[in-house]
Amino acid sequence: MNGGVVMHAIVQGLHDVFAAMWAGGLLTMAVVVVQSMKAARGLQERTKSEGHTGVAGPERFMVLLQKRLRKVVTVAIVGVFVTGILLLRLSLQSSGGVFESSLYSTLIIVKVVLSVIMVLVAIMRSAKLRRFNEGSSDPRESGLPLLFTNAAIAVVVLMLSGVASVVH
Ligand code: HEM
Question: Helix, strand, or coil here: 112?
Answer without folding.
Answer: helix
